[in-house]
Amino acid sequence: MAILDIPLFVVASAIAATGRRFAVFVVTIWTLLVTVMLALFAAVTSEAGWGAVLMAAASAASVLAGIVMLRGSVPTHWLMVGPFRIRPAAAGQPVRRHVGATALQIVVFWGVALGIVPAVIVWFETRWMLHVPAPAGARIAGAVLFAAASVVGLWSAAVMSTAGDGTPLPIATARRLVIRGPYRFVRNPMALAGISQGVAVGLMLSSWLVVVYAVCGSVVWDTAIRPHEERDLEDRFGAEFRRYRAQVRCWMPRLTPAALDQSAASPAGASAE
Predict the structure, then answer these.
(1) Fewer Cβ atoms within 10 Å of its own Cβ: the N or the C terminal residue of the chain?
(2) Contact 1, 55 (CB under 8 A)
(3) Residue extents of the structural domains in the chain
(4) How far from 231 is each of 76, 152, 170, CA to CA, in Å?
(5) Are the C-beta atoms of residues 196 and 204 closer than 8 Å to each other?
(6) How far apart are CA 195 and CA 214, in angstroms?
(7) pLDDT tens, 170-221?
């Protein structure tokens, strides 16, 4: 594999720098293949764990660099398809249906993003001999953070589904601009709660890789997802959403709730999440 690395990575990278598209594919595919093989090797032998982590980071960078070279930019709109496509909920649906859909979303998200994925990460972290025990205080802090973030997330979901004429789901997003409850303190309380829950799970599991996973998720959401959501809100709400955005920050909660008029929100719009 080391011998093949010379023509398939070193030489191909040099050719890719000249703008040859085929070389970009060769470098990217080879980097991904090496990453998978090294990850499996580390899982089987419990050796080269740090190499697997570094190769995973290198693969992510290679994929992004390859996409930029081929397309000129990262097409973040690719993420907004299928179940992540933004469109308002159907009009005239009862509140109980929105509440039920929101509850299902919470169960699925918490089960997958906060349960299954962290469990898989911890397994690899342990097999790769990268697990670092955390002090008891970190686990207690994680439990407190998880409880607080869960309260915020459930509160946000309840307000969204009962007052927004829709759900937090992108394919059935709320039809009204929700600017009450936790949305008076921060524009994206559900995203903030979800990321905090991810960090909390990492602390409770004594897993620094799970914490990294949560932080990376926040970066992807803030740079790739949020701009599309806010552009959609501005398209449908115009000045109303711009006033809200000017008064309430995206990530840093206010110490006091913003003085917002929920009755002025248009029923044809969407929520701030």
Answers:
(1) N
(2) no
(3) 2-74, 79-264
(4) 13, 25, 13
(5) no
(6) 6
(7) 888 999 999 999 999 999 999 999 999 999 999 999 999 999 999 999 999 9
**Distances 108 to 114, 179, 189 between C-alpha atoms, Å:** 10, 26, 18
Model pTM score: 0.88
Sign of dihedral through CA atoms 211, 217, 220, 226?
A: negative
**88: β partners:** 173
| Residue 43 CB partners (closer than 8 Å, separation 6+) | 124, 127, 128
> Span 79-264: which CATH code?
1.20.120.1630
The structure tokens listed for 267 are 């029923």
Query: Does residue 90 contact residue 48 with C-beta atoms inside 8 Å?
Result: no
Q: With contact defined as beta carbons under 8 Å apart, do 99 and 90 qualify?
A: no
